[in-house]
Design a protein that fits this description.
Elements lengths: L6 E2 L2 E2 L36 H8 L4 H7 L4 H8 L2 H8 L4 E6 L3 E6 L1 E8 H4 L7 E2 L1 E6 L12 E9 L2 E6 L3 E6 L4 E4 L13 E9 L4 E9 L6 E6 L6 E3 L6 E10 L2 E8 L4 E8 L4 E5 L13 E7 L2 E7 L3 E7 L8 E8 L6 E10 L4 E8 L4 E7 L4 E3 L3 E2 L7 E6 L11
Parallel strand pairs: 6-28
Antiparallel strand pairs: 1-2, 2-11, 3-5, 3-29, 4-8, 5-7, 8-9, 9-10, 10-11, 12-13, 13-14, 14-15, 16-17, 17-18, 18-19, 20-21, 21-22, 22-23, 24-25, 25-26, 26-27
Length: 416
C-alpha cells in the first residue's frame, strides 16, 4: 500500500491512500442511551451509496484525499474506483498553472510551478491573485555530471495530468491535484552521439480505455521516430514513420484519438496540420485557413486545443484571429471564433495563445512582450475592454500558462 513520500518504479505519492483497519464511522443504535440513561439516542440516517457517490464527486480533490480516512468504502471509492475518478473529473474545478517555457538550455533540479483557481482570474473583486507554489525534486539523470539538474523540453496536459519532457529521451507524468508523479521509461537512442529533441503529447485512447503518450524524436538529417506508450506498461511501441519530410513547430495537440502538430511540409514548402490517428496509426494532412497565402507561418503562430477542438491563432496587422476546426479532419469546418485587438502598450509584441474562454464572453490571452517575456490579459467582448491580472510572488514573465481540471487520475488503479 502506497504511503506519503513512497517511491516505487519512479512513482511518488503526495497523499496516503492507506486503508484504515476498521470502519471509523459507526451508526448509533436506537438502543443506545445518554449518560443519565434517560433518553434513547435516535438512529443515524443512512444515505444510499449512489447518493454518497454523487455528493462526493462535487468535493474539491484536496478534501477527497482527507476523506479517504473516513471509512474503507470511501477510501476504495476515492483512491481505487476508476468510474468514480472519471465522474469526479467532469465536476472538477478549473485551475491555471504556470510552467517553465520549453528550452534545451533551461536546466533545473526541481519542478517549480505556480497554481491558482481559474475563477480567481475573472473575479473583478480581486485586485491581486495569490498563487500556490508547487515544488518537487527530481532524481538526477543517469550517466551525467549535472548533479540533479535536468533539461526541460515542454509540457502537454489532459484530464488534470501533465506530461513534462525532461532531458532528451525522458518524460514525467505529474498530477498537481494529488501531488503525484511517475517517471516514464526512457526512449532508446541508437545514435548516442546525435542530439535528440523529443516532443511528448498526452491523450486518452477511447478504444483501449486508457491514456497514451505519443513521442516524436528528431535528429539532424535523420528520419523522425514516432513511439507510443500506454499507462500501466513499461515500454514504448514504435509507430510507422511519417510519410513525408517535415519540421515540427510547437507541441502536439490531442483531439479525440488523434495527435496533431503544426509542421512545415518540406516537399510542398507549406505549413500544414499533421494528424496521427491512433485507431490505425495513420497520418493525414490538413490545410488551415491561411495555407494558400504566402509566408503563412508568419500568420499562424500557435496551435492548441480550445472548446474540445483543434485551434489556431493567426496574426493580422491590428488584431489576432482565433480559429477552431469544429469537425476534426474537415477543412471546410474551420470557424473564426473571435478577433482580439492588439494592446497599445509599447512593450506588447503579439498574442501567443488563447488560454480560455469564459461563459460571459471573456477570453484569457497570453501575449509576448518585446523582451521575450510572457504575460496574461483578459479581453471582454461585450464592452471591448482589457484587464491585466496581477499575480503575486511569481515571475509570470518566465512562465507558460496551462489549464487543468482537478482530478484523481494517476492513482494506482489507473496505472494498470
Amino acid at each position: 500500500m502506497m504511503t506519503a513520500g513512497s517511491n516505487v518504479d519512479g512513482e511518488n505519492n503526495g497523499a496516503s491512500y492507506q486503508s484504515p483497519t476498521e470502519e471509523t464511522l459507526t451508526p448509533i443504535s436506537s438502543s443506545s442511551t445518554t449518560a443519565d440513561n434517560s433518553i434513547d439516542a435516535p438512529s443515524l440516517p443512512t444515505l444510499p451509496f449512489d447518493l454518497v457517490t454523487e455528493i462526493l464527486c462535487w468535493i474539491p480533490v484536496k478534501f477527497l484525499l482527507q476523506f479517504c480516512c473516513v471509512c474503507k468504502s470511501w477510501n476504495y471509492l476515492i483512491s481505487q474506483d476508476s468510474k468514480f475518478q472519471k465522474k469526479q473529473l467532469s465536476h472538477g474545478r478549473l485551475h491555471l498553472i504556470l510552467t517553465p517555457p520549453p528550452s534545451p538550455y533551461n536546466l533545473f533540479g526541481n519542478i517549480r510551478l505556480s497554481d491558482f483557481l481559474m475563477s480567481s482570474i475573472f473575479n473583478n473583486n480581486l485586485s491581486t491573485i495569490t498563487a500556490t507554489q508547487i515544488k518537487y525534486a527530481l532524481p538526477p539523470p543517469l550517466g551525467t555530471r549535472l548533479e540533479g539538474r535536468r533539461s526541460f523540453g515542454g509540457v502537454t496536459s489532459l484530464d488534470g495530468i501533465f506530461c513534462f519532457a525532461i532531458d532528451e529521451l525522458s518524460a514525467l507524468l505529474f498530477n498537481p491535484s494529488i501531488r503525484k508523479f511517475k517517471l516514464l521509461p526512457p526512449l532508446e537512442n541508437p545514435q548516442q552521439n546525435h542530439y535528440v529533441h523529443t516532443k511528448y503529447t498526452l491523450l486518452y485512447h477511447r478504444f483501449t480505455n486508457n491514456y497514451k503518450i505519443v513521442a516524436v524524436s528528431s535528429r539532424r538529417n535523420r528520419p523522425i521516430d514516432v513511439h507510443s506508450h500506454a499507462f500501466g506498461t513499461n515500454y514504448w511501441t514504435r509507430i510507422q514513420n511519417i510519410p513525408f519530410k517535415c519540421r515540427f513547430h510547437g507541441m502536439g495537440i490531442s483531439v479525440g484519438d488523434t495527435v496533431n502538430w503544426l509542421v512545415y511540409d518540406v516537399g510542398n514548402r507549406l505549413w500544414v496540420i499533421l494528424s496521427l490517428d491512433l485507431e490505425d496509426d495513420s497520418y493525414q494532412k490538413f490545410l488551415h485557413p491561411f495555407s494558400n497565402e504566402p509566408y503563412n507561418f508568419n500568420k499562424v503562430v500557435v496551435s492548441q486545443e480550445l472548446k474540445g477542438c483543434f485551434c489556431i491563432v493567426s496574426q493580422r496587422p491590428n488584431f489576432s484571429d482565433v480559429w477552431i476546426m469544429k469537425e476534426h479532419g474537415n477543412e471546410q469546418s474551420w470557424t473564426k471564433l473571435f478577433s482580439v485587438p492588439y494592446l497599445t502598450d509599447r512593450w506588447f509584441y503579439a498574442y501567443s495563445k488563447a488560454v480560455y474562454v469564459s461563459e460571459d464572453d471573456k477570453v484569457l490571452m497570453e501575449f509576448k512582450k518585446k523582451l521575450g517575456k510572457f504575460s496574461l490579459v483578459i479581453y471582454d467582448f461585450r464592452n471591448g475592454t482589457f484587464n491585466i491580472p496581477k499575480i503575486e510572488n511569481i515571475d509570470a514573465g518566465l512562465m507558460i500558462p496551462n489549464i487543468y481540471v482537478e482530478s484523481l487520475i494517476l492513482n494506482c488503479s489507473m496505472l494498470r
